[in-house]
Design brief:
CATH architecture of the largest domain: 3-Layer(aba) Sandwich
Bound molecules: pyridoxal-5'-phosphate
CATH superfamily of the largest domain: Type I PLP-dependent aspartate aminotransferase-like (Major domain)
Radius of gyration: 24 Å
Number of strands: 11
Shape: globular
Strand content: 5-15%
CATH class of the largest domain: Alpha Beta
Number of helices: 15
Length: 495
């Protein structure tokens, strides 16, 4: 009933849609990175549910005119605000094929499941996980973290406790450890699984923004002395603020010593394993009990696609497979091919996310993706050099990966809080200029401009443009309204 009446006309319209999207990607530099939408545009999306359909062509026109120009801009090479991937035309086509196939990859006896297993096996190999490690594709690292921490929680408790409502009714007190720079998705996961964010001990960082191992040890000792069980240590393989990589090897050893679960947040940084000069800095990732990561950031796979890997596949499955469903699987027919992805995660019905990941890795090969990641890091170093060269700008944190935090400091005659306010205004100005899109974050108490180099399209000309846009914005808004002394230290937005 919903198929086209005229397949030829549909095909022609489909070609036009493809052409428009390919044109838009090919000529992306002709657009502003981002632009705010008028209220009139916003209002177009506040109508009633349409009773009658419109022509596909009209819908496409509406998309081109009112949606495409007003997206966040992460496909653009000038987008550096948050750790967002740029996507690729190849990934776009794979997404279309997946939608056409419309496979429900929750389970059953079908090859799309093998594609997902292939992707998981590649990652198992890349990160040096054992053969019995399991994995499942997720919407992103937030969901992957939730799955990992549920498994970790259940692993710490006996079966009866889990069956009776988990740790909420348990006498055992658990503690989790991560650096102050850990992503908010860890605290959220702890809260969602009923442990509460309070179990998370934020550990201070060293001058390179890595978790301070001595401070961590002191916190663990203090908890043990008061009868609290060290349950979870989270290492960051690339923090959102500065790109810092924790000493994963040391964290793995500490977790082993105190019997804690070792989880790695490798949302964007884990794939730096593909860059030969960065891979050694991820040593220890192979010892993780679980790893959460994204394909949609540095992997450039279109949104959304993340993954969790769990070392002990049995513990992972026991946390998510419902025993009755699991036991009803067959040897043959559509109900064969167990275990299924739904035995390893939250979703029963799931889309064919693995196809765009598979297309991306097959199409480019791991070496080219690794080279692209290296290039992003070289651009970050080049940006730091450019900032150093400008007397009015200052690098605010060590550039260890692909993120540069810097600040306009003019002639340094104003108090720090006024430069905080000024940098905040500068970031807004640059974003509104459409020339580049950095974001604002805080290093200690200082407001800084952050540029995350994640997009494979970004090049040296975009670095130059960011510097030019920053100086232009600073000079145009140097006259702050009097009375602007400080800006509230607002929580920065999540990635
Ligand atoms: C982006 C990010 C997350 C959250 O991942 P989503 O895919 O957005 O859910 C977690 N940790 C780090 C370090 C990130 O960069």
């Amino acid at each position: 009933m919903l198929d086209p009446e005229d397949w030829d006309a549909f095909r022609a319209q489909g070609h036009r849609m493809l052409d428009d999207m390919v044109d838009s990607l090919q000529h992306i530099r002709q657009r502003p990175v981002w632009q705010p939408a008028d209220e009139s545009v916003r209002q177009r999306f506040q109508g009633h549910l349409p009773a009658n359909g419109v022509k596909l062509q009209d819908l496409h026109d509406e998309f081109m005119q009112y949606i495409l120009p007003y997206a966040v801009g992460n496909t653009h090479p000038g987008f550096m605000g948050w750790v967002h991937g740029g996507g690729t035309p190849v990934g776009m086509l794979a997404e279309m094929l997946a939608a056409g196939l419309n496979a429900n990859v929750g389970g059953r006896n079908q090859i799309p499941l093998e594609v997902e297993r292939q992707v998981i096996a590649w990652m198992r190999e890349l990160f040096g996980f054992p053969a019995q490690a399991s994995g499942v594709l997720t919407s992103g690292t937030s969901a992957a973290t939730l799955i990992a921490l549920i498994t970790a929680r259940n692993a710490a408790l006996d079966e009866a406790t889990v069956a009776e409502g988990g740790v909420m009714n348990s006498a055992i007190q658990l503690a989790a450890y991560a650096s102050e720079e850990v992503h908010g998705c860890v605290g959220r996961a702890l809260s969602m699984i009923g442990l509460g964010e309070a179990v998370l001990r934020p550990v201070s960082c060293n001058h390179r923004h890595q978790i301070d191992l001595m401070a961590l040890q002191r916190q663990i000792d203090a908890d043990r002395a008061s009868g609290v069980t060290p349950w979870l240590i989270v290492g960051s393989a690339g923090t959102v603020n500065t790109g810092a990589i924790d000493d994963l090897d040391a964290l793995a050893a500490m977790a082993r010593t105190c019997g804690a679960w070792f989880h790695v947040d490798g949302a964007f940084g884990a794939l730096a394993m593909l860059a030969p000069e960065i891979a050694p800095r991820l040593r220890g990732i192979q010892s993780a009990d679980s790893l959460a990561m994204d394909f949609h950031k540095w992997g450039q796979v279109p949104y959304d696609a993340g993954m969790v890997l769990v070392r002990d596949g049995d513990k992972h499955r026991q946390s998510f497979a419902t025993a009755d469903a699991y036991l009803q699987r067959e040897e043959e027919g559509l109900a064969a091919n167990s275990p299924w992805p739904c035995d390893y995660g939250i979703d029963l019905s799931r889309g064919f996310r693995a196809l765009k990941v598979w297309f991306t890795f097959k199409s480019f090969g791991s070496e080219k993706i690794g080279a692209m990641i290296s290039h992003c890091c070289q651009l970050a170093q080049a940006l730091a050099v450019r900032v150093d060269r400008e007397v009015e700008l200052e690098v605010m944190a060590e550039v260890s990966l692909n993120i540069v935090c810097f600040r306009y400091c003019g002639d340094r005659s104003l108090p720090d809080v006024q430069y905080d306010a000024l940098n905040r205004v500068i970031v807004r100005h640059i974003q509104l200029s459409g020339m580049a899109a950095p974001s604002l974050t805080y290093i200690g108490d200082r407001a800084v401009i952050r540029a995350a180099l994640v997009n494979h399209r970004t090049d040296m000309q975009d670095i130059d443009r960011l510097i030019a846009a920053t100086l232009a914005a600073a000079h145009s808004c140097h006259q702050l309204p009097t009375g602007v002394k400080s800006e509230p230290n607002v929580e920065t937005e999540r990635e």
